[in-house]
What does this fold into?
Amino acid sequence: MTARRKSFRLKLRRSLSEQLRESTSKAWDLLWKSVRERRLAGFFVYLGT
It folds into this structure.
């Protein structure tokens, strides 16, 4: 394998792992946002407001 091809594969692997990390982070953010909103909605129902 040439150095150029190896370099390309490393960049591709790095970019894929970065995309996976970012998408996972976004998914967790959305999950926690929805959980937080549901908890707050339940809390306000509990308070009667």
Summary: The mean pLDDT is 81. Helices lie at 3-47.
